[in-house]
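dude i think i finally got it to work??
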Amino acid sequence: MSDLDLLTQSLARNVKRWRTERGFTLDTLAARAGVSRGMLIQIEQARTNPSLGTVVKIGDALGVSITTLLDYERGPRVRIVSADQAVRLWHTDAGSYSRLLAGTEAPGPLEMWDWRLMPGDSSDSDPHPSGTVEIAHVTAGELTLTVEGAQYRVPAGASVTFEANVAHTYGNRGEVPTEMVLTVSVPLVH
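look at this
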C-alpha cells in the first residue's frame, strides 16, 4: 500500500470516527466545514484525496489537528516523527511545499509545519475558527504575510504571531527561497 493510500484510508477512518464522536451528522459536519456532503461521503469511503484546504476545514470543524486526521498509528504518549514520516500536503511545480512535521491535541489541535516558498509563490488560507493562533519563524529568505489585506515583511531570524481567524496568505516576493517553521494552535470545539 502506498503512502497516499495509507493516508486516504486513515483520513476516511478518522473523519468518520471524530464525526461520530462529536455526534455530527454528515450534513452537520458539511455545514460546519463548508464542504459538500458528497465530498464527505467520498472522504469517509476513501474514494478521494481531498485538497489540503478541505482537510484543514474538516479538522477545524471537528476541532482536531490534521495530524490526528491522518494518523494511522495510535501509539505511546511519546511519538517521534522521523524526517521521512513528515507528510508533504501542499506543493507547487516551482518547488514550494508545506510539510506537517508533528501535531497533537493539547488541549486543542496543535500543529508544527515546515514550509518552503519559492520566489513568486504564495499560499492562501481560509479563516480558521475564532481563537486560532499561528506562529511562524522564518529561517531563510523573507516571508510576506498578508492578513486582512495588510502586508507584513518577516525577514530571516524573525518570528510573527497572529490571530488566524481571518483570510491570510503566505508569500515570497523575494528572489531566494523562503523557509519557515509554522505552528498552528486551534481552540477546542464545544
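The longest strand covers residues 97-105.
im so relieved honestly
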